[in-house]
Design brief:
The complex is a heterodimer.
Chain A lengths: L3 E8 L9 H14 L10 E5 L3 H5 L4 H8 L7 E4 L5 H14 L5 E8 L6 H9 L4 H7 L3 H16 L3 H15 L13 H6 L2 E3 L2 E2 L9 E9 H4 L7 E10 L14 H14 L8 E3 L5 H10 L8 H6 L16 H5 L3 H17 L11 E8 L4 E8 L5
Parallel strand pairs in A: 2-3, 2-4, 9-10
Antiparallel strand pairs in A: 1-7, 1-8, 4-7, 5-6, 8-11, 10-11
Helix pairs in contact in A: 1-3, 4-15, 8-12
Chain B lengths: L10 E3 L5 E2 L14 E3 L5 E10 L12 E9 L3 E8 L10 E8 L2 E6 L1
Parallel strand pairs in B: 6-8
Antiparallel strand pairs in B: 1-2, 1-3, 4-5, 4-7, 5-6, 7-8
The chains are: A alpha/beta, B mainly beta.
The structure holds zinc ion.
The site of zinc ion has 8 residues of chain B, from loops.
Chain lengths: 387, 111
Amino acid sequence: MNDVCVIGMGTTEFGVREEGIVELGVTAVGRALRSCDVDREEVDALYLGNFVAGMLEGQETLAPLVADSVGLVGVPAMKTEGACASSGIAFRQAYQAIRTGVHDVVVVAGVERMTNAETSEFTRALGSAADHGTDGATGLTFPGFYGLVLDRYMHEYGATREQVAAVSVKNRKNGASNPRARFRSPVTVDDVVDSRLVADPLRLYDCCPAADGAAAVVLASADVAESYTETPIAVLGSGHATGRSAAYRYDDLTTLEATTLAAEEAYDEAGISPSDVDVVELHDCFSAAEIGDSEDLGFFEKGEGAAAVAAGRTAVDGELPINPSGGLLAKGHPVGATGIGQIYEVCLQLLGEHENQVDGAEVGLAHNLGGSGAVSTVTVLGGPSGV
Amino acid sequence: MSESPPEFPATRCADCGLLYGHEAYICRECGSETFERAPLDGSGTVYARTTIRVPGSDHQGEEPFEVAIVDVGGEETVRVTVRIEENPELGPDDPVEFVDRRDGVFYFRAA
Ligand SMILES: [Zn+2]
């Protein structure tokens, strides 16, 4: 098995963008290639995550279009789709291909364009990640799924609305100093609990904003990584798992098994435990999601996640900083770009170059989740001194 | 609400007996493709509930509407995703009863 490293990275800002889907993808991939000394002829493949370009833009065949546009000639290029985990899956596939010796250098990208669609069209497109015949038929939306999760969570663990709102407050504060974020203004607990209801008990400021954007990384076998960069980031472990297909399929709606299974695989492969992680970017599509994720990833006991956020334990200067980038709640959630966007932020932390730098960050974790907990990827990354 | 609610149209795997609320095409326990009717008592309990106030384009104009996860049945129960009628303030552990199934969606109301 080859060890695998991130040797280059590039991104666009996440927000309201004028560029089309291909241009966004090309920009991020171009920046990633320019960030390291890789010639285009040395790239063996391009994997690209995207979710709704077909529905919202009528543009498919994205991976080969992006590959051709950046001058990657003749290489295999393919799109991966798993709703909001689309590019986490792309990363995983590239990682496996290098690890097993199929490829040496692979570009992985994620791209999405969403803000050009009407809210109802965009909500419908996102809703296509739910099972049409069961959850989808009732009109359950994505915020609705997490409304159900939060309703049950508050009932079982006695978490307060104010504690849950602390997630949005923290992430919006972090996003305020991240130039890649869509929202750069802080909010208060009162702002969150007074904002309009979207899917009770979730309110507007509990929900991540739609966004356009793209992010890319270049992965390489550790054998060749140092010929391209002096600061390779090691992929210490990777997990990818399937969870439940619909809300009714959960025995316990407060635990999303796709995450616990992917995390277990990633921790095992990295040979670490949750307490070894220094910085986390996790899938906070809704405030309630961050709380559940932080427990599913093993950082807090079941039912303690909400109080932990409210107590500041996950702030940038807390014992375990979660989403110092501002997360999806502030950066925005261009769904197909999110997974690589998270890995980009973790890599910046491990390089010591983040705007909200976590002191001494040497092990980072990125967690990407798609659908109603249907799919998750977890990636554990290590700083350049450890390669 | 003294009348008993209509039976809930559950199905059962003919080979291993696993009970299904939503349709199954293949049994996730044993792989069988054979199912038989197994109607359940239409009374149930809310597991979790939300009110959708921003629907997708295919449910525009219906908002606000309530979606819930319900455990339906008597001795034996199955968990299903349903619509709650009449928008009551129902929450976890509240009793509900089956109304009917329209366009593939199960409708329940407060019991
Ligand atoms: Zn069976």
